[in-house]
Amino acid sequence: MDNKLAPFSLPRWRFTTWLCHSGHDVPDDIRVALIGSLFGTLPIFAGGVLNTIAVSIAITLREPTPAFMAWVIMEVLLCGTRLILLVAAHRAARRGQPTYTDVYLLLGVLWGASVGYGAFISILSNDWIAATLSCLSAAAMVGGICFRNFGAPRLVAIMILLSLGPCCIAAAMSKELILTLTLIQIPFYLVAMSIAAFRLNGLLVSTMKAERENDYRARHDALTGLPNRAGLIHASQTRYKAVPGKRGKVAVLYIDLDGFKPVNDQYGHEAGDLLLVMIGGRLNALKGPDDMVFRIGGDEYVVTMSVPDRNDAAAFADRLINEMSAAFALTSNVSVNVGASIGVALVPDHGFDVLTALNAADKALNVAKAMGKARWSLAA
């Protein structure tokens, strides 16, 4: 699965890691995508910031007491810091640097507590205009909390608890008996919205896993598990997108098996399929850790590798010729021998991208096959 957004750092603190837990079997790339979602939807974030600051200021103008003034200061500091951190995190992500995820999540929790604090002191002030404004603001924030943080359902639950929970405490402390209804309403609302957040998160993770699996199947050969032609195209657009500089080149080796059809004819397609899998395994064992092997056709493979110069590509082609000619034991009683003809091309010598070099390697392969079996040829 591709994440088109710049990657944001996973949390490292025990508490923030717990907040963002989405299941034990969630792959790392999906976890990164879920964390990225917490840094998105800037308009919703900005709307929430303006709302809570405006409400706290308006109420403080009605009730200019130290408690309300402290609320305004907390809102301005928390919201301002979160906004600055959000912008800095996006810039850091684009540069591939750590994105302050732990601090950002902690500030979100503190912001939820600040909203709850405002509702708490407003209810106890006995100013019902102030109480109405603060409680409406807190309730409105729940929608934004759920929408922005669906990637971390535990964070949603904690922020809702801190935003609305103090209303229950204030109601219990108030002399107004009717407010005790909130002791039923708010816990019910908290549980309902938290369940909804967990279900939405589960649905999202399932969808992302399915997308990831479909993407994998589309780019990998079902028989050998190697990347296929679509995987080669993707690698050329991502992994090998940058044209190598003076320090090295990318060698593209186009491999066609010699003598594969007689194996199929003599031992059957199951034996032929097993041989293709074994060849893929042997190629994987020969390549370097940063190189790639693709199966792009019936008995056609491609190896891409970073090399200092063409001499290293030539040496690897010689090694492939020798290794591919060694016997393959299909069963305890059946061993077969095949060979390989190879066309070699280099980026940027024979093209400024892998696909262009592949076309050059294909032409070189035809030259190698014309010269006889178990040979390689460098593109002109």
Considering the chains and any ligands shown, give keywords for the structure:
single chain; 380 residues; alpha+beta; Alpha-Beta Plaits; 2 domains; 63% helix; Rev_trsase/Diguanyl_cyclase; Nucleotide_cyclase; transmembrane; transmembrane helix
Write a short abstract of this structure:
By secondary structure, the protein is an alpha+beta fold.
Textual characterization of the structure:
This protein has 380 residues and is of the alpha+beta class. The chain contains 13 helices and seven strands. A five-stranded mixed sheet has the order 2-3-1-6-7, with helices on both faces. Helix 7 runs antiparallel to helix 8. Keywords: Membrane, Transmembrane, Transmembrane helix.
What topology emerges from the helices and strands here?
Elements: H1 14-19, H2 28-38, H3 42-62, H4 66-94, H5 101-124, H6 128-148, H7 153-173, H8 182-219, H9 229-237, E1 249-258, H10 260-267, H11 269-286, E2 292-295, E3 300-307, H12 310-324, E4 328-329, E5 335-336, E6 339-347, H13 354-371, E7 376-378
Helix pairs in contact: 3-4, 3-6, 4-5, 5-6, 5-7, 6-7, 7-8, 10-11
Strand percent estimate: 5-15%
The assembly state of the depicted protein chains is single chain
Total beta-strand segments: 7
Computed structural class: alpha+beta
N/C terminus separation:
37 Å
What is the overall pLDDT average? 89
Number of domains: 2
Describe the main β-sheet briefly.
5 strands, mixed
Low-confidence stretches: none
Q: What pattern of helices and strands is seen along the backbone? A: HHHHHHHHHEHHEEHEEEHE
Strands of the widest sheet, in order across it, are 2-3-1-6-7
